[in-house]
Design brief:
This protein is of the alpha+beta class. The protein folds into 3 domains: 119 residues, 2-Layer Sandwich (Alpha-Beta Plaits); 96 residues, Chitinase A, domain 3; 132 residues, no CATH class. 45% of the residues lie in helices and 20% in strands. The protein contains 12 helices and 11 strands. The strands form 3 sheets. Strands 6, 7, 8, 9 and 10 form a 5-stranded antiparallel β-sheet that branches. A hairpin with a 5-residue loop joins strand 7 and strand 8. Helix 3 packs across helix 6, helix 5 packs across helix 6 and helix 10 packs across helix 11. The relative contact order is 0.11.
Length: 447
C-alpha cells in the first residue's frame, strides 16, 4: 500500500517520482510469497510442501524478501503512475528507471520503504504568441526567360535519340570501346570499357576522353597518346602518358522537336498555339513558385516561434524520432536494421553518429510539433464531412468501434494539418529580397 508519493521536476522534461510503501504491505507481500514457495519447496527430512515456514525462512528468506519487495515496488509504481496528473505521466517510449537501487538492499523487515524512479514526460511550456507577427519572406517574378527555359526542358524531354552518319560533336551520344595498350599493342589495365554509352561533354568518363570522341564517325578506330595531369585523381596515371585505343561503335544525337504549334498540341491537346503553351507554362511556374514561397513563409513562422519558445525535449523523445527516421530509410530501401547498420559501418560510420548529425533538426521538428499541437487545441478548426470521408477512404473492413477510433484519429490529424495555412494567413510578411525563379526553386548560385 502506498503511504505517500512525491514528484520533483528535474531538467529536460524529466521527473523523479518518490513512493513510500507501508511496512505492513511489504510484510504481507513477503508472507504471501513465502507461503507460495513453501508449497513447492522440498527440504531434506520433510515431504514436499511440509517443511516448517521458519525453516524455509532461515534458508531462503533473504531471496524471497528481495523478490516479494521488488514485486511490490513494481505493482505500486503502476498504481502511482495511474494516479499522477496527466502532465506527469511518462512518455510511451520512456521507461521509469529505479534510482539508487543498491541503496535499497538488503531490505529491512517491518520498515516503510521509500524508492524513487525517474522518467521523461511531455515538455511543459506556455504557447508563444503565434498571430499578428511581422516576418520576412522573399518574393519572385516569373520572367519570359524562365518560361523559355521551362519550354526548352519540355523540348529536350520530347526529343528522340537518332543514329547519325556524320562525325560526333559535343552533346552527341556515343557508344564506344576504349582500352589502355602496352608497347606491343595489347590491352592492359583495369579501366578498359566495352559498349560505354557517353554523352560527349556531359557524361563523366574515367580517362576524360570527350575531346577525342569529337570528329569520329560510327566504325572509326584510333589509337591516341593520353597525357594525364600531375594532380590526376588516380596516382596510377597522374603525370604519366599512356596509349589508348578507341573504337567508335555508334554515334547518335537528340532530335529535338521544333517549337511550333504542332509541338504545343503534342504537349497538351488543349493548347492550340505556341502562345497557349507559353501562357500555360507561366501559370505552372507561378503555381510552383507560390507553393515554394508558402513553404518559406511557414519556415519563417517556425523559426520565429521556436526562437520565442526554445523547448528542450527529453533525450528519449529525440532518440525515438531518430530511430523512426532510420527505420523509415531502411524500410524504403528494403533492408533490415542489421543490414542497414553494416552498410554504415563499412563506410566508417555508426548509426549513433548518424543520429547525432540529425539531432538539431530533430529537436526543431519536435519543438514545432509540440507548438502546433497547442495551436490546434487553442483554435476551432473545423473538419468537413467531405474532408473526413476523403481521408478515410474505404472503411468497409472496419468494425464500428474501430471506425469510431479511426475517425477520431484522422479528424485530429486533419485539424493539425490546418495549422500551417492558419499560421501563414494570420501573420504579416514583408519582402526580404527578390529572387529569380531558379534561385527560389534551387537556391542561390554559388559565386
Amino acid at each position: 500500500m502506498i503511504a505517500d508519493k512525491q514528484i520533483k521536476e528535474t531538467e529536460n522534461s524529466s521527473v523523479e517520482l518518490s513512493i513510500t510503501l507501508t511496512a505492513q504491505s511489504i510484510e504481507d507481500a513477503y508472507t504471501a510469497l513465502l507461503k507460495k514457495y513453501a508449497k513447492d519447496i522440498t527440504i531434506k527430512g520433510f515431504r514436499k510442501g511440509k517443511a516448517p515456514l521458519n525453516l524455509i525462512e532461515r534458508k531462503y528468506g533473504k531471496m524471497i524478501r528481495e523478490e516479494s519487495t521488488f514485486n511490490e515496488l513494481e505493482e505500486n509504481l503502476k498504481v502511482a503512475l495511474d494516479e499522477v496528473e496527466d502532465k506527469y505521466k511518462p512518455l510511451a517510449f520512456s521507461t521509469p528507471n529505479l534510482i539508487n537501487e543498491e541503496s535499497l538492499t538488503p531490505f529491512k523487515p517491518n520498515t516503510d520503504l521509500t524508492y524513487t524512479v525517474s522518467y521523461d514526460v511531455m515538455p511543459q511550456f506556455e504557447t508563444p504568441e503565434y498571430k499578428n507577427l511581422e516576418l520576412e519572406a522573399p518574393t519572385v517574378e516569373i520572367t519570359d526567360e524562365d518560361v523559355d527555359k521551362e519550354i526548352e526542358k519540355l523540348r529536350q524531354q520530347n526529343a528522340f535519340v537518332v543514329s547519325k552518319e556524320d562525325a560526333a560533336v559535343e552533346g552527341d551520344i556515343v557508344t564506344v570501346d576504349f582500352a589502355q595498350l602496352d608497347e606491343d599493342g595489347n590491352e592492359i589495365g583495369d579501366f578498359n570499357k566495352k559498349d560505354a554509352v557517353i554523352t560527349i561533354g556531359k557524361t563523366q568518363n574515367y580517362f576524360e576522353l570527350d575531346n577525342e570522341f569529337i570528329g569520329m564517325k560510327s566504325g572509326d578506330s584510333k589509337t591516341i597518346s593520353k597525357e594525364f595531369a600531375a594532380d590526376f585523381a588516380d596516382e596510377t596515371y597522374a603525370g604519366k602518358t599512356i596509349s589508348i585505343k578507341i573504337d567508335m561503335k555508334e554515334v547518335k544525337f537528340n532530335d529535338v522537336p521544333e517549337l511550333d504549334d504542332e509541338f504545343a498540341q503534342d504537349v497538351n491537346e488543349e493548347y492550340k498555339t505556341v502562345e497557349d503553351l507559353k501562357k500555360a507554362t507561366k501559370v505552372k511556374l507561378e503555381e510552383r513558385a507560390q507553393q515554394q514561397l508558402k513553404d518559406l513563409k511557414y519556415q519563417a513562422v517556425v523559426d520565429a516561434l521556436i526562437e520565442k519558445c526554445p523547448i528542450v525535449p527529453p533525450k528519449s523523445m529525440i532518440d525515438a524520432q531518430a530511430d523512426q527516421q532510420i527505420n523509415n530509410i531502411a524500410r524504403s530501401n528494403n533492408m533490415d536494421m542489421d543490414t542497414f547498420a553494416k552498410i554504415f559501418e563499412m563506410q566508417g560510420q555508426t548509426l549513433d553518429q548518424l543520429k547525432e548529425t540529425w539531432t538539431p533538426s530533430i529537436i526543431k521538428d519536435i519543438n514545432m510539433g509540440l507548438i502546433k499541437e497547442k495551436i490546434k487545441d487553442a483554435e476551432t478548426f473545423e473538419v468537413t464531412d467531405e474532408e473526413l470521408t476523403e481521408a478515410l477512404g474505404d472503411t468497409s473492413s472496419y468494425k464500428a468501434d474501430q471506425l469510431d477510433y479511426l475517425k477520431e484519429m484522422i479528424t485530429d490529424e486533419l485539424k493539425l494539418q490546418k495549422v500551417n495555412d492558419f499560421l501563414i494567413e494570420n501573420n504579416t510578411f514583408k519582402e526580404s529580397k527578390k529572387l529569380s525563379y531558379d534561385e527560389l526553386m534551387n537556391g542561390p548560385v554559388a559565386e
